[in-house]
Amino acid sequence: MTSHTTPLEYKSHQSQMNILGFWVFLGAEIVLFATLFASYFVLEHNTAGGPGGGADIFVLKDVLIETFLLLTSSFTSGLAIHAMRNHDKKGLLLWMIATLLLGAGFLFMEINEFLHFIHEGATIQTSGFTAGLFTLLGTHGAHVTFGIIWISLLLVQLVRRGITEKTSSKLFIASLYWHFLDVVWIFIFTFVYLKGMVM
Amino acid sequence: MKKADLKPVHMPSNSWTPIVLAIAFGVVGFFLVFEWFTLAIIASVGIVIGLVANTFDYNDGYHIPVDELEKEEREWRGDLK
Amino acid sequence: MSAHTSRFPWNLLVGFVLSIALTLLAVFVTFYTDFSSSVILWIIGAFAIFQAIIQLFMFMHVTEGKEGIINVINIVNSMILALIIIFGTIWVLTSGHAAM
Q: Tell me, what does this protein do in biology (chain A) (predicted)?
């Protein structure tokens, strides 16, 4: 890497270390979600007479809308980082706001989905299956909520300070987090929803 | 150790946010375990304050210069020459 | 190291289109084919892993930066840990070891 092609977020030693450290954190997050997936897979068939997953409570249309919202938000946050590397502050701001709106749309759909589950008689205390399901989905949803707050706070700093070595590395790290949430959702979509509806 | 081997040591600055966050997360967790949601929500204000203060904190710490390292090292070893 | 040039972000667009296509393909395989459910699970599982790899390389640029190779080793290590946790847990809790 020669210095004139190095993206701004990698310029200082501190930023490089921050980005590397965040990758290590993402490694720990993979393990966290692995434990939640593991307990869900073990408890999946223990429905204790309550709703049994699959066709009982999952609604394919809503899940697909959630998936597309999150996939698109991952794409827009990628576009935001592309704009940042072109020193396009306005583009960065607009694509990040688009990301936030799509993330909020996802959260809205997920909360409605939870209300639907509860309406169908599947609360977190109903059975092993619903406990595992709500813990897995809820942890992912809590991550999305946290990401929305985090990126909003970073955008305040971006507006105040512009694209600097520090704000660019912060926003780059936030975008890594957002893409990671999308990766987790892909696995939830496949191994919770699709698996639940086919098995 | 020769002086040429010494490099300035990077140190973080003092900050109140980590201890506030650590305590607030612990307290909120405790309340959530017993489903005392009102108390949990009140305590989670501490988390929000800590996180917001932390993200707006642009202090990157400081470096201990080589001269000072050498001086301290010499004093601790009792080698006062 | 080409994502910061001013050209159109083709890799992002290709990654996005591929993710949407893989999602729809997974839905198609699940609901509109006659494979047995374990075959379906293998196919959609492969799609999910492929999609995760797309995200890692096209969106997150995992190999970028001075520590690119460290990032890759770290993520591969975490994935191995995740697989051990998931399959180890399922194995130990469903094959009778827990009942002893």
A: Catalyzes quinol oxidation with the concomitant reduction of oxygen to water.
Reduced to 3 states (helix: H, G, I; strand: E, B; else coil), residue B11 is: strand
How far, in Å, CA of B23 to CA of A93, rounded? 34
The pTM of the full predicted model, rounded to 2 decimals, is 0.89
Look at residue A51 in the predicted model and tell me its pLDDT. Answer: 84
Average pLDDT rounded to a whole number, residues C60-68: 77
Provide, as residue numbers in chain A, all residues whose Cβ is less than 8 Å from the Cβ of B52.
Answer: 153
Count Cβ–Cβ pairs < 8 Å, chain A vs chain B: 12
Please report, for chain C, the start and end positions of each structural domain, with discontinuous segments joined by +: 1-61, 66-100
Tell me, what's the ipTM? 0.87
What is the set of domains in chain A, with CATH numbers?
54-198 (1.20.120.80)
pLDDT digits (tens, 9 = 90+) for B12-50: 899 999 999 999 999 999 999 999 999 999 999 999 999
